Amino acid sequence: MALAIVSFIFSGGTWEHKLRMREMDATKDWADELTRQSRGKHHMGDFLPPEELAKFMETYQVLCSYQVMLSSSPPIENGCIKV
Length: 83
Prior knowledge:
Elements: H1 2-10, H2 15-38, H3 50-71
């Protein structure tokens, strides 16, 4: 009997776990679709004043330079953008 209960719980969990898993899957699918639809349409710079974007990019470049200095790898391999 105990083995059957343990087997049931580990085979997907209780009905609450299964319901939550379906909800999370639906949320992921919705987010993936929104991301797919928005490709190429917006950039964070579209929503920031130019001076704030410049300040952010300056900070980003400093952090990328520091990361490159620590790893001694080319910036492109670390996801840094040369501006």
